[in-house]
Amino acid sequence: MVEGKSTRTVPVRLDYFSDVLCIWAYGSQVRVDELKRMFAGKVALHYRFIPLFAATAERIGRGWADKGGFAAFGRHVRQVADQWSHVDVHPKLWEQNVPPSSVPAHLFLKAVQLLQDHSEVSGAPVSGFDGRTLFEEAVWRVRRAFFRDARNVASASVLEDIAAQLGFDVGAIKAMIDCGEAHAALHLDDEAKQQYQVPGSPTFIMDEGRQRLYGNVGYRIIEANVRELLHDPHYGEASWC
Question: Which of 5, 4, 3 is nearest to 236 (CA)?
């Protein structure tokens, strides 16, 4: 921060696009947590979900058929995760209890997010959740249930179990899905993906689409971009990132 220059008085909005079945998003959770901790009250994260793994039989079963299918993809994912010490991956990931789609989990999470927006679920950070809100902890637990525990997170029973762990009203979540609101919210995420030309998961969109950080981006790069946006734009500073 340059001495003597004022900063924004409203939080910087960051749209965070991911698929719950994406290993890179799973590994990036620690960066999201640190970002929220470092810039508490200065950034507003808006979580969006994209259908990267909307049809796993097509994307992996057929897309990886010549490489060994699901078993080969599972080995690939475990090799990626071996680079990190902060996450655990099941040895049979993508070989047992394979979710046919990430969409049911996304609908479940959009329903929880909507309940938070309607103040039916608290949006305050919860002690013991590394600064996460109940919604953010639900996102993390869905990812962890898949990657660490190899559970089929497309299954309603698995998602309801996660909801029960967090004390959610399962009936309210179902109602938000059944009435179509969660579907509409998920559709808006897809429209935003197209508007911002999001290339994949995970992706940060900043400054109304003017800045985009995609993939396995280091925390310091994310932090540098956020710090630039926190400068008062009236001083005419161009972002160098």
Answer: 5
Percent with pLDDT over 70 in the chain: 92
For the chain, what are the domain ranges? 12-235
12-235 folds as Glutaredoxin (3.40.30)
In the sheet with 43-49, reading across from the earlier edge strand, the strands are 43-49, 12-18, 203-206, 211-214
In this structure, are residues 69 and 61 in contact, taking their beta carbons and an 8 Å threshold? yes
In the predicted structure, residue 10 carries a pLDDT above the cut 50: yes
Q: How many residues does the chain have?
A: 241
Q: What is the pLDDT of residues 153-178, one digit of tens each?
A: 999 999 999 999 999 999 999 999 99
**What is the reported pTM?**
0.91
Residues 6+ apart with CB under 8 A from 161: none
